[in-house]
Amino acid sequence: MLRGLVRDASDGSPVRNAKVIFTSDARDKTEDRTSGEGKFAMTVFSRSDSGRIEARKRGYSPAVVSVYLDDSEVTIDVDLQRE
User: Fold this and answer.
1) Partners of 77 in the β-ladder
2) What is the per-residue pLDDT for 4?
3) Which of 16, 35, 40, 70 would bridge 20 by S-S if both were Cys, CB 3.0 to 4.6 A apart?
């Protein structure tokens, strides 16, 4: 399980309805949208234990974070910068 929070980098407030995409190094993809509290959670089925998370929402620059799936549950928080 890959879960986390997408926040506004300027004030730390949650960013709701942001698109969050996990892409493994083997090109497996999973995606989710954040809740009203900025939270996301997705079950990842991948042939690789590493990859990246990309979070995006209109009005913000996309953010990319490297991920290593070293446990059954991994938590990643992402900060988005306003454009």
Assistant:
1) 5
2) 97
3) 40
Which tokens sit at 78?
């992402």
Residue 42 near residue 1 (C-beta atoms within 8 A): yes
What integer best gives the mean pLDDT of the chain?
95
Q: Please give the domain boundaries of the chain with CATH numbers for all domains.
A: 2-82 (2.60.40.1120)
What confidence tens digit (pLDDT) does each residue in 56-67 have? 999 999 999 999
C-alpha 18/C-alpha 9 separation (Å) is 14
In Å, how far from its chain's centre is CA 18? 9
- Sheet containing 50-56: order of strands: 29-33, 19-24, 50-56, 63-68
**In whole angstroms, what is the distance from residue 50 CA to residue 29 CA?**
12
